Amino acid sequence: MLEQLFGSKTRVRLLMLMLNNPEKSYFLREIARTLGMQLNSIRREVGNLEKNGIIRSVAKAGGEKEKNKQQNKKYYSINTDSVIFAELKALFLKGQLLLEKKLIREIEKISQVYYLVLTGNFVGLEKGSTDLLLVGKVNRNEMHRIVRKFEKELNRQVNFTVMSLKEFRYRKDITDKFLYDILENKKIVIIDKLRCI
User: Fold this and answer.
1) CATH 1.10.10.10 spans which residues of the chain?
2) CA angle 47, 52, 58 (to 5 degrees)
3) Which CATH class is domain 96-196?
4) E strands within 103-163?
């Protein structure tokens, strides 16, 4: 959806990367490598966004080898002082919510879900043990395919955990640390049919 709105897949992925990491600065090759895109298209989009004040650049001195060559690397980051920064962030957050809904619909098609929660990166817990917990019956190969596709759209890795109902109950009974970290931390419960069975 955002690609149609912004007219460029590269621009959307670039903005998503920078809006999700506003404190970080990137050099061009790093952006191209992270996004898996051509350097020239990244250079063009960065130039356009910099002209419009959405991205800013900073020259930083390189390592010892580069000091000898008298070279400075140019790093880019999102301009948090831009007048439209807050609106862009909100728009991309809404776009991410739509992607999450799409992911959930896809998962529901390939599985019998008793319990599904989004945690970890979905709720701002960077050091969470997993990003998605699914309890139920699922085709794991299909689940991997769906999550990999979603990772490309979202521009970041998604760690997921699948448990059978029996394994979930066993782990809950023995007060499994991994499971209780999920259950007691910040999360978004999407499906909870455990009380019904």
Assistant:
1) 2-83
2) 55
3) alpha beta
4) 111-118, 132-138, 160-163
Read off the pLDDT of residues 25-69 as tens digits, 9 standing for 90 and up. Answer: 999 999 999 888 899 999 999 999 999 999 999 887 655 555 444
**Residue matched to tokens 């800013």:** 56
Structure-block tokens of residue 8: 């460029």
Closest CA to 133 of 106, 113, 154: 113
Query: Under a CB-based contact definition with an 8 Å cutoff, are residues 16 and 54 in contact?
Result: no
Query: Tens digit of pLDDT for each residue in 131-145?
Result: 999 999 999 999 999
pLDDT 10s digits, 156-179: 788 999 999 999 999 999 999 999
Pairwise CA distance, residues 5 & 15, whole Å? 13
2-83 — its CATH code?
Answer: 1.10.10.10
Q: Where in the chain is the domain with CATH 3.30.460?
A: 96-196
